[in-house]
Amino acid sequence: MSAGRSMPAMRPMLVLLPLLASTAGHAEPASFAAPEAPISQPGYGEDLLPRDEKDRATLLRTVAFDATVYGMAAYLHYEQLYRQVFDRSSSNYTGFNRFAHERNLAGPDYATFKVPNTDTLYSTAWIDLSKGPVEIDIPATQLKYFTLNIFDIFGNPSNLSNRTIGVKGGRFLLVPRNWRGTAPAGVMVYPAATTQLWILMRAFAQSDAEVRTARAFQDAVRIIAPEGEGPADSHGGASPPPPAPGAIGYFGALDHVLRANGWQPGEEALVSRFRPLGIGDDRPFNPDRLTPATQAAIESGYAEALDMLTRAKSQLGEPTGTGWMKVNKGVYGFNYLRRSVINMAGLGANVREENASYTTFADRNGSALDGASSRYMLRLQTPPPVNSFWSVTLYDAKTFALHPNPLRRYLVSDRTKGLKVRKDGSIEIRIQHAASSDGNWLPAPAGPFFVVIRAYGPKPDMLNGQWLPPPISREGDAR
């Protein structure tokens, strides 16, 4: 075929060449999609709803259900953020970028979040990156264990801990998404997923001397926010709504959270579906703009989702075959059901590499643990394999709080004073309501309870499943 005959076939390609070449200079790439294809109409979200009244109610109920499952973890974090950052009457009010320190180990009256450990001193701070990066300075320490457990607003965790950074400390710059600055010399950049972050700091302490060391560490950790940021609780945009029960309170808070923080990459289509609820449209959430029929459908979808999430608490982990559940926490991706259920059970769930945990509500035979009717024994033939420490902690199953008792003993651990270890290295922990002189006695309520094993710095044998906790055995009737 001659060159002349081939030219007509080449012409369409030549027409495209300038468009393709323009991308090399970072010019706006050519788009062959219809201009309106990726765009929904601005405003309330009327374009997303069918006109039939019954169908509208069905879709609104479904969208409200999905938004409740999606955003429950963010709402629960916002409840805590609001108390610490905006509610000046709160006992742990600090504003943004300041720590509230717990100077004593958690007890039955601990109220910041559910199912606290009582192995470490807690400190909490909410970080705001809307005005720029915030620096965190961590001192060198010889603490047996510490972590600055950093959560985005949706509860996804990461750690600045002796596992990840060692004991020499360092300076870390928390930077907002798409930040393009340069960190000062000697400062490591920490890219944040959301504008608002929760730092849950844990510092190991058991003895009085260790408590004093942990308090000194708390005081030495510094948060350095941008100069001229204004009052510690200031934040641009609409006023933050106080958390309130019911669908209206929930969706108002979720709208505020999404406006301040955005969402994970890949969630744009999902979140855009929420506009008919008054979330993410061109104005902040206002229930007065919703018709009575819309409000009724939203309330119904919210209630159905809440009931489902409550029932799904049994999915908190994977059965081990020994009566315990291995809790799959801290790694969620797009599994919004798991994320919501775990955060409903208690905020602050860390990754297993930092803190592997196991939970049981039942004995060897599958019967509910109940101190009113039974006495129990946990025989650890081999103690949990850890690099830091382990503990066995008991909680009231009705309140999810530590059980008050005369000894103020809420756990048995490798550091428990008077702990008895058998000649073969095994440890027997007696669990019952009646008082016992046994140094390994873990006091239980005269009612239902559950037990949590925590292993900080778990070794490979635990992470790969070679070590599993043995079942709790019923030893006889309560007395």
Automatic annotation (TrEMBL):
Domain DUF1254 residues, every copy: 96-223
SUPFAM superfamilies in the record: VPA0735-like
Residues of the DUF1214 domain: 355-459
Keyword ATP-binding: no
Domain of life: Bacteria
Signal peptide: 1-27
Signal in keyword set: yes
Keywords from the named record: Signal
Stored Pfam families: DUF1214, DUF1254
Name the UniProt record assigns to this protein: DUF1254 domain-containing protein
Originating species: Sphingobium indicum (strain DSM 16413 / CCM 7287 / MTCC 6362 / UT26 / NBRC 101211 / UT26S)
High-level lineage: Bacteria, Pseudomonadati, Pseudomonadota, Alphaproteobacteria, Sphingomonadales
